[in-house]
Specification:
The complex is a heterodimer of chains A (256) and B (240). Chain A has 256 residues and is mainly β. In chain A, 12% of the residues lie in helices and 37% in strands. Chain A is globular, with a radius of gyration of 20 Å. Chain B folds into 2 domains: 3-47, no CATH class; 62-232, Calycin beta-barrel core domain (Lipocalin). Classes of the chains: A mainly beta (256), B alpha+beta (240). The interface between A and B is large, with 62 and 56 residues.
Chain lengths: 256, 240
């Protein structure tokens, strides 16, 4: 390749990467500069979602510890938070989120290696389209409804997540637990130069769980889902032999 | 460079910048393979041209659509010294606004109590009375993804669609070895005629065993289940 051509391509690459994320947001008109925090005072706890600091700690590898962390996710939750359609942190580009989740341990015996969680969720935000009425990435919730299953993956060691969304797309991720935060990386479930990074923080004895789900395109954050789940209840299922669910209980997961 | 040229260049670059988000599928397979390596994404990505990819997606969506309906279940549970019948019913409906499907399979009657110690193990289909089976599209692998939730465990497998049949992996290593048993869907056929056939394999271990499961069938599994789902008329068929 002639030097001039190579130089020109490097310049083009730099210019493309330097372009602001609105262009990555597929025609969506994104705010160019940060604006003031529009979060209502009552939602100030949502500010915690902006950054999840993972304290450098040793990875959790013991199966029983992984299972114990997974058990923290049990319960019935309401959703709060936002979807940042441009991923650049500008509050004006955020769409408020509402929703609920019902998560139940499928196995509830003493063997933590068998711990698995079955969640039925319904999460919505206002639909957003571009100026021509065309869909934009993240502009419509694919989580209304969706089913997510988590299970301990002793070989990782970590936790495996599988999701089927309302568009019929199934995704699979394996994550590792550091402290109270599970970090999982996967492809987006859609073709392209894209990956999804999920961080779930669940502290012991807390009623809140934070979830940050970032979609990165060309290593740049193009979309952020920042969910704060508040446990409304934790109705325990009746259990049969060896901690198995009863048929009646399995049928009502997601309906409570 | 005059201002018009500069504007044109900027617009062109803007279009390029927008590409990955919206028109990512237009990129070639070479780029996707490279991305998979660079980002250490575990899921393998098929190197297919866009036309082939779209065709496969359409085939999978059509296949998933065949699962929808009400069915009566007639199943045969085979184990090392014989077999016995299981009966039940199933309802498969759309899950969400896409091609995803959720099936609820419910056992209504089963065999008499078995004396085999293998079949007494918890988790065999002899004990299973209800399960949820979700089916969707694994867009990375371009395969059908199944997720099964029953009263005491979850399983998930991805399988390729060929003709009317999706064949899933039956590798017991996909099971968590600490389990005393693991059953998995190995095949689902959905013919255009309307009926479904689902094959399930059961692997069982002695508690604490780290080796392969007890192989009691020629197939290499501990036991097998073949479920025939005969399509029933919709509930509202009699409504004028």
């Amino acid at each position: 390749m002639p030097p001039n051509t190579a130089l020109f391509r490097r310049w083009l690459l730099w210019l493309v990467l330097a372009l602001p994320s609105p262009l990555l947001a597929a025609g969506l008109s994104c705010t160019q500069s940060p604006v003031g925090n529009p979060l209502p005072p009552a939602d100030s706890r949502l500010a915690l979602l902006d950054e999840v600091v993972v304290t450098p700690r040793k990875l959790t590898s013991r199966t029983r510890d992984l299972g114990a962390w997974l058990k923290r996710l049990e319960g019935q939750y309401s959703y709060d938070g936002y979807v940042d359609l441009c991923g650049n942190g500008n509050a004006a580009d955020r769409q408020p989120v509402t929703g609920r989740a019902d998560c139940v341990s499928v196995y509830n015996g003493n063997d933590e290696a068998r711990r698995s969680l079955y969640c039925v969720i319904d999460v919505r935000w206002p639909q957003v389209r571009d100026s021509n009425g065309a869909p934009v990435m993240g502009g419509e919730s694919p989580l209304s409804p969706a089913v997510v299953i988590y299970r301990v993956a002793p070989d990782l060691p970590g936790i495996q997540l599988l999701q089927l969304d309302s568009k019929g797309i199934a995704t699979h991720a394996r994550g590792q637990l550091t402290g109270d935060t599970l970090t999982a990386t996967e492809s987006c479930g859609y073709p392209g130069l894209c990956r999804k990074v999920t961080r779930i923080t669940a502290h012991a004895d807390s009623q809140d769980i934070s979830m940050l789900i970032d979609v990165e395109v060309d290593s740049r954050r193009a979309l952020r889902h920042a969910f704060l789940l508040h446990r409304e209840s934790n109705n325990q299922m009746r259990r049969g032999r060896y901690g198995a669910l009863t048929p009646d209980d399995l049928l009502i997961v997601g309906e409570r | 460079m005059n201002s018009t040229t500069a504007l044109t260049v900027c617009l062109a670059l803007a279009t390029m910048g927008a590409g990955p988000a919206v028109h990512a599928q237009a990129r070639g397979p070479a780029n996707r393979a490279m991305l998979s390596k660079d980002l250490q994404v575990e899921t393998p990505i098929l190197a297919l041209d866009e036309a082939t990819r779209s065709q496969k997606m359409a085939e999978m969506e059509a296949w998933l659509g065949r699962l929808v309906g009400r069915f009566s279940i007639s199943a045969k549970y085979s184990y090392y010294s014989g077999h016995y019948p299981i009966y039940g019913n199933a309802t498969c409906s759309r899950f969400g606004s896409g091609p995803g499907v959720r099936c609820i399979l419910e056992r209504t009657s089963s065999a008499p109590v078995m004396r085999s110690p293998v079949l007494q193990m918890e988790g065999t289909w002899a004990h299973a009375v209800l399960l949820f089976a979700y089916f969707g599209i694994n867009a990375d692998r371009l395969e059908i993804q199944s997720m099964v939730v029953d009263l005491e465990q979850v399983t998930a497998q991805s399988g390729m669609l060929t003709g009317d049949t999706v064949t899933f992996s039956d590798n017991w290593k996909a099971c968590l070895k600490s389990w005393a048993h693991c059953w998995m869907v190995t095949e689902v056929s959905a013919s255009a005629a309307g009926d479904l056939v689902m094959k399930v394999a059961l692997d069982a271990w002695f508690q604490g065993s780290k080796g392969p499961p007890m192989i009691l069938m020629k197939s290499g599994h501990t036991a097998e289940l073949e479920v025939h789902l005969r399509r029933e008329p919709p509930l509202d068929a009699s409504v004028p």
